[in-house]
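Treating backbone geometry as a discrete language has practical consequences that deserve illustration. In the encoding step, the backbone of a single protein was reduced to a row of integers, each denoting a local shape. The amino acid sequence and the backbone structure tokens for this protein are reproduced below.
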Amino acid sequence: MVSGFAMFLLNRRNTSGRLYLCVPECPRGFTLIEALMVMVILGTIGAIALPLYTRYIEKAKVTKAIAEISILQKEILNFQAENDAFPANLGDIGRGNLKDPWGAPYQYMDMTGVSGHGKCRKDHFMNPLNTDFDLYSMGPDGISKPPLTAKASRDDIVRADNGGFIGPASEF
């Protein structure tokens, strides 16, 4: 059964009186140029967005490492207040399996029993970063050297000045 409007379309007559079939124009597809333009626009947006997203993710990881080092510092100080000594390792405070945002374990060293400054992490003037304990993440590259001036240590997230500073080594 054909509706009235369809019958109107099918039975239209042109000015010469002939009956002809009036069919609406078929929808057309995209041309190659239009498709290429869309791909160029999407590629440009992706090229702008990807570095921004990568920087955002890296900044979030640094922020997470700073927060976790701050929490670990408080737990170590609580342990020291209760036991009159710093823990031998992070396992003593129940955090031996804690990994930094890049998947490596946090580094901890009790500085009270260390003689000399050979194993201590050092600032720009080769002075030890801390006198109580050292706590840090080796950062995205997973490599660290004792002086913060070493290229491998610039991306580390460190605790320095006995907890007065927690952040990227490059900012200390």
